[in-house]
Amino acid sequence: MNAEEKVKSNHRFKNREITSVILNAFYKRVYARLGYGFLERTLHGNLNNPRLSALVRVLFLSKIGLLKSCCFTEKLMAKYPEYVSRMLAEARGLLEEDDYGQMDAAALCFDVLALFPELHEAAELVLEAFSDPWLIRDNRKAIGRHVDEWDDRVWQQRRRLALSFRFTCRWEGQYRQYEEGVDMDDVMPEDVREMLDEGRMQLLQDYLLGQSRGSEMAWPIFQEAFKRTAKPEATMLWVGELYADQGYFAEAVDVLEMLLSQFPNSKEGRRLWAEVRWWRDYQNRIPWIPPQTSANGRRYRQMMAQIEPEFATELDADEDLIEHMPPDLDKLPDDFKLPALIQDELIARVEEALAEMPDDVGRETAVDWSYLDKLENGDIDTSQFPEWAQYLLLEIDDLQQELFLKQYLLSYFSNPPLFDESEEDDEDK
Fold this sequence. Notes:
There is one protein chain. The chain has a domain at 371-413. The chain has 20 helices and no strands. It is globular and about 65 Å long. Helix content is 57%, strand content 0%. By secondary structure, the chain is mainly alpha-helical. It comes from hydrothermal vent metagenome. This is Tetratricopeptide repeat protein.
């Protein structure tokens, strides 16, 4: 009996459709690991069922560790083929070179994971590649141009993950639509193109505007497209890539597993599945992304009040985003009916259950993220800065510019060292 069957047996929940608004409440601790498909098959959406809160606790306290396997996972082999050792050795060699070989090393590991998903050594080697100090600095700078590190709203955390995946992805099929001789119909099938585009626009509302209804609407649209298209493999591959590109790794894994169940020989699908599956499992350990907290916007509001004092009188301003725009029914089949929205009462029950749970255990990271607490509390001791930084601050008269410089300096000093001090001492000798 696999992990999914155990949960079904223990709780005896009936099958019932559940929309992804409830999954947004599960995002940090539960949904990010399980995905829409699993919860859709196991959760019971009855408001009068007191076991709903109990299930949330059981799933969280179990650490979701047993649920990382899927129906395509190979049995752990006592001895892997010799070429696996060669590929991992080549990856390690790339990490030891002075040139930027981290992404190429990670790509080799993903190739291995596509063949042997449970090879923990390969998965950990990807994390080692991502822990390179230069790579951490580069990605922090690149993502910081889009999202401030002190912005602790949940949807912004998903944007960081999406951008990180986009910057580091080495899946060869990601630019296939631009290759010479490739028919766009083989990438985004014409017979369901309007449906796919409408689903994409729904997801973009969540990605760019902090909505939650968009992902709720997109899922049934995509599921219907899978049924109607004459090219289900290309359709599911496109949707799986889209979900990953938007930071929805659990949904991406679900869709790609649907693809592999029907087309087990899909090399592109399996390779993308391996990479996205790693991101689903390791998304809370990406070294250049600040840990997610349960505050959900507290630090953002505090920082915005410092930057723009008038914002302090509008603490909920970040919640009053553009209202969700429902799907354009003209782009959907006439006989397709969107499911009803999830009830607010059920969302409240789930959020109440999650509020009683402790935050995830802190993880060690190369970046000193404690600087974010100093920013939020205004507890910045400039006497601890290097002498050159203190002189630089003395040259600034404008308080606003001084605040921005302090933010930059704290972020800069929180980076991991680029060189081993022991190696520098040896060179000096």
